[in-house]
């Protein structure tokens, strides 16, 4: 069967949750036996989100093949349990970059290069790319931004052309809108939905299905009104209520029969009713915890939880696996110092020091780590968090004065964390870190080995600096063991403390591989250690 294409657009406002709706629909279709993937087209000029400040756009999600992508790809992977790749995230910048490079190579044979057809042709080529692999029955394409924005226009135009080229039953357009409740009037309002559908129709795209975000149930007469004014069937007006957890959304969409409408529109064969047993088991455990822990998350971007999206979700997965409610307590590392660290952390059952970049808040992270190391509180360090754990140990246990990472102090006498030689040559910012999946060998008998239950693992990376192996013997003699090593390069990937109940830190990002069906072992065991700590 040739792949079918579903496009998800949004109107009225951003942040309506197109990513979650796309992932939920994909989950339902996958649970019926279809092979599905999701891709995100973002209308900004950055080639990828790798250079964006997390405050701008939340976390940068990294795929197996080392693409720095939008955080929605994290949702796709967490819901579907299938890896995405570079091809799953395309920006306006990447499209233009390709077209302009082609133009410089003379590929357009003297023609004037224009938005239509050249930019839209390139958008269409990329929209169809994953479908041509033969691997997928259904490709869901989420268009970032809002319909009606100037920058979204070429994408909507590409969708219009594709619908026409591929034929009526080959594509389906789902438009996400908002049905706001006006308190003063005591009413739900459909006008914003009507306007945004009109915008989309003016661009030549008539949506097949409307998913209406609403704080209150949308009554039948209002659904009828929306259907009438927006030219969709009444059963294709889907209500999407605010949910307790994003993981409820697939079940809510099932109740609204979103999957059935899509199958009907695309004339897909009825394979099976969706089997959501393991998903429901996950939700059951999540909603009926038998334990509760408070975990401190120490980081630099804590004002915007989206900056740590995958970490938060990995805790949700690990919480469910342990039937434990995990409360994340946020700490801006800049505010932690020697005086207040005990009062801030003494009642926590675990501390995670987060990934990050730059000097700000570095000292506070070291204080937090010193405290948990000396007080036997479970600790998980991720990327910069692992580098901080190494620096703290060097300063306070090995007594190496002013030991540091050269990222924070290029002149340090003890560069415990340093840039690798090949990184020093690099001047370009985007896509030049150590990115994507690398193999790591865990030492038998180590905590890391017992956590994973095997010695060979593969985890994703995003960093420039590395543990400096010159110091390895001193570290190990003092009880900080390197228990995960990259077998090809000898780089240290995991460190752990011998004389501590649970002190593990990784140079890689375990949070990027945690999914609903495969909660990450490091998070699962860290939460378990926190539960044990509550029993002390
Ligand atoms: N800034 C550190 C580095 O580049 C850590 C990066 C991270 O935490 N992702 O090596």
UniProtKB/TrEMBL annotation:
Domain of life of the source: Bacteria
Give me the residues that bind L-glutamine, please: 55, 356, 384-387, 407, 464
Pathway assignment reads: Pyrimidine metabolism; CTP biosynthesis via de novo pathway; CTP from UDP: step 2/2
Instruction: Please give the activity regulation comment for this entry.
Output: Allosterically activated by GTP, when glutamine is the substrate; GTP has no effect on the reaction when ammonia is the substrate. The allosteric effector GTP functions by stabilizing the protein conformation that binds the tetrahedral intermediate(s) formed during glutamine hydrolysis. Inhibited by the product CTP, via allosteric rather than competitive inhibition.
**The Glutamine amidotransferase domain, residue ranges:** 304-528
GO BP: 'de novo' CTP biosynthetic process; pyrimidine nucleobase biosynthetic process
Residues annotated as binding CTP: 14, 149-151, 189-194, 225
One short Pfam family name for this protein? Answer: GATase
PANTHER family on file:
CTP SYNTHASE, CTP SYNTHASE-RELATED
Q: Which family is annotated?
A: Belongs to the CTP synthase family.
Give the multimer and partner information.
Homotetramer.
| The protein, known as | CTP synthase
From which organism does this entry originate?
A: Pontibacter arcticus
């Amino acid at each position: 069967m040739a792949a079918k294409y579903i496009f998800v657009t949004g109107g009225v406002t951003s942040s309506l949750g197109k990513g979650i709706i796309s992932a939920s629909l994909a989950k339902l279709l996958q649970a019926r036996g279809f092979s599905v993937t999701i891709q995100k087209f973002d209308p900004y000029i950055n080639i990828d989100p790798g250079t964006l400040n997390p405050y701008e756009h939340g976390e940068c999600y990294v795929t197996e093949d080392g693409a720095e992508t939008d955080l929605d790809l994290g949702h796709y992977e967490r819901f579907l349990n299938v890896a995405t790749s570079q091809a799953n995230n395309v920006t306006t910048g990447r499209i233009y970059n390709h077209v302009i490079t082609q133009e410089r190579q003379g590929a357009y044979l003297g023609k004037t290069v224009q938005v239509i057809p050249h930019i839209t042709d390139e958008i269409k080529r990329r929209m169809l790319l994953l479908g041509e692999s033969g691997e997928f029955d259904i490709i869901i394409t989420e268009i970032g931004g809002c319909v009606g924005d100037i920058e979204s226009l070429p994408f909507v135009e590409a969708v219009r052309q594709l619908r026409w080229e591929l034929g009526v039953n080959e594509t389906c357009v789902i438009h996400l809108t908002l049905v706001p409740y006006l308190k003063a009037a005591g009413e739900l309002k459909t006008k914003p939905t009507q306007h945004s559908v009109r915008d989309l129709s003016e661009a030549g795209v008539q949506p097949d299905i409307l998913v209406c975000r609403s704080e209150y149930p949308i009554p039948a007469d209002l659904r009828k009104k929306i259907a009438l004014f927006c030219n969709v069937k009444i059963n294709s007006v889907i209500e999407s209520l605010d949910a307790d957890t994003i993981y409820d959304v697939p079940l809510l969409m099932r109740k609204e029969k979103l999957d059935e409408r899509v199958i009907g529109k695309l004339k897909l064969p009825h394979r099976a009713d969706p089997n959501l047993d393991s998903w429901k088991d996950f939700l059951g455990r999540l909603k009926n915890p038998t334990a509760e822990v408070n975990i401190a998350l120490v980081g630099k971007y804590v004002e915007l939880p989206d900056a740590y999206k995958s970490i938060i979700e990995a805790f949700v997965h690990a919480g469910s696996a342990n039937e434990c409610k995990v409360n994340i307590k946020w700490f801006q590392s800049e505010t932690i110092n020697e005086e207040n660290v005990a009062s801030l952390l003494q009642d926590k059952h675990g501390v995670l020091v987060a990934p990050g970049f730059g000097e700000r808040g570095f000292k506070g992270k070291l204080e937090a780590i010193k405290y948990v190391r000396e007080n036997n509180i479970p600790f998980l360090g991720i990327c910069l968090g692992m580098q901080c754990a190494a620096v703290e140990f060097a300063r306070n246990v090995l007594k190496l004065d002013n030991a540091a990472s050269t990222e924070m102090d290029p002149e340090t006498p003890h560069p415990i964390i340093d840039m690798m030689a090949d990184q020093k040559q690099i001047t370009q910012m985007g896509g030049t870190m150590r990115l994507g999946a690398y193999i790591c060998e865990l030492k038998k008998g180590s905590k890391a080995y017992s956590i994973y239950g095997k010695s060979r693992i593969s985890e994703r990376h995003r960093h420039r600096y590395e543990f400096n192996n010159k110091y390895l013997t001193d570290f190990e003699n003092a009880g900080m063991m390197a228990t995960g090593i990259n077998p090809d390069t000898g780089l240290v990937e995991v460190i752990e403390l011998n004389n501590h109940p649970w002190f593990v830190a990784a140079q890689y990002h375990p949070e990027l591989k945690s999914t609903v069906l495969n909660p990450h072992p490091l998070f699962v065991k860290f939460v378990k250690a926190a539960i044990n700590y509550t029993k002390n």
